[in-house]
Amino acid sequence: MPKKDRKRLQVVISDEQDALLTRTAYELSSPERLISKSEVVRLAIEKIARELGEGENMEEYRAILDQTEPADDS
Q: Of 2, 11, 61, 65, whose CB neighbour count within 10 A is largest?
């Protein structure tokens, strides 16, 4: 069976954000299934996109982004 085509994205995150990812993956994991940090990121992307599509939490997300350092997308 061929693998799914996936896009790879590299981002720079802070130590605090990495710790949050690790903790969230641990909390979502169970003895039957370990959740990876990549899965947490994919889940967050889907959740944010769904909420924005429904017009929810837009100002909250903007406020969080205003508190963080600007992205270096170059």
A: 61
Cα–Cα distance, 2 to 58 (Å, whole number): 38
Mean pLDDT of the chain: 87
**72 in any annotated domain:** no
Task: Provide the residue range defining the domain that includes 54.
Answer: 18-25+33-67
- Is 37 inside any structural domain? yes
Q: Is residue 3 part of a domain?
A: no
Categorize the per-residue pLDDT at 71 as very low, low, confident or very high, splitting at 50, 70 and 90.
low
Predicted TM-score of the model (pTM): 0.74
Cβ proximity of 40 and 21 under 8 Å = yes
For residue 21, give the nearest of 7, 35, 6 by alpha carbon. Answer: 35
